[in-house]
Amino acid sequence: MNPLLTEPGASHSPLVARADIAAFGSASSAPGPHTDAELAALLALLTGTGPRIETVTLGHSRDDASRAAAQAFATAWKSRGGKVLTVADWPETAASWLRPATRLTAQAPDAWVVAASVLGFAQLARRLRHSTDWDPARTVAFASLQDSRLAALAGHDTLHGLRGATATGGTWDIRHGWVTAYPQPEATA
Question: Nearest-CA neighbor of 179 among 20, 170, 187?
Fold first, then answer.
């Protein structure tokens, strides 16, 4: 039996168990580079219907692809008149992830934007839900997090409402542990 699929709340620790990390070892690989279509879809998620989003807090893993994606997003967001309140980064392994979780939530952004690898973000997300007022439904992510292992590693409903962009310009979301992808909308004439 997969220990990640046990009863919700079975572990009160915000850290992913070592056995679970070992079972999902390939989740620790660094993400690939982001695409222009992905960046456009991410911006559309933030500027589409719904409450106006002006301020974001941006978080990223420390790998090159995540840094580049975060920088590209910050440049595009600022060129649209948006404001990046804070940029926080985190390692793939840490003692608790409390410092980056606190940095991400210290201000009150309209939304959070994440460019990261699966393992590091799964552990950070657990800390965010355990120790802060972070809301995954107000968070958008790059395609690197469109991975069913993320929801499993993070735990039951930790990421419910998280949305993101696919590399081809579509979108995805996580609902009750299920990752669902949606194709890029057809252009209308």
Answer: 170
For the whole model, what pTM was predicted? Answer: 0.87
Specify the residue for token string 């992808």. 181
Question: How far apart are the C-alpha atoms of 128 and 84, rounded to whole Å?
Answer: 19
Show the CA angle centred on residue 125, arms to residues 95 and 143, nearest 5°: 120
Q: Rounded to an integer, what distance in angstroms lies between the CA atom of residue 17 and that of residue 143?
A: 25
Q: What is the DSSP letter of 44?
A: H
Q: What is the mean pLDDT of the chain?
A: 87
Q: Is 90 left (phi over 0), alpha (psi -120 to 50) or beta?
A: beta
* pLDDT digits 0-9 by tens, 153-170: 998 899 999 999 999 999
5: its two tokens: 């699929």
Determine which helix (DSSP H) or strand (DSSP E) holds 90, and give its type and residue range: strand 83-90
**CA 28 distance to own-chain centroid:** 15
The one-character DSSP state at 102 is H
